[in-house]
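Hi V.,

You were right to ask for the full record rather than a summary. Here it is.
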Amino acid sequence: MHDNKRFAIVLTHMGRRKDIVEMPWLESEYRIDESDWLVLSDDGWRAVANGDPTIWEALERKLLVGFYLSQPQLVVVIGHPSGAADDDHVEQRQAEVRGIVQRIRALLLPAGV
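Predicted structure:
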């Protein structure tokens, strides 16, 4: 569908400065040529991580439609600190990423997560 290009769906949230973080490693390390980004607010990110039914169902529908239309090879979940540098905050963000990854894997989509 993408002329032998590798396609990914990227799920992340706004950075500290409310901008999108550049991630050249996505292209270089994972050989992703094209991607569709879903950028959540911090509140939306936490709602997805906590399994809020309304937000999660909307994200699930978005992923399923995205898979039908673009057939990505990879779903990338990227969390990053939103200001505080203490270990507890970093561990919280890592736990959020793990939770989101587990929920997406449970959908049994035909791509790596």
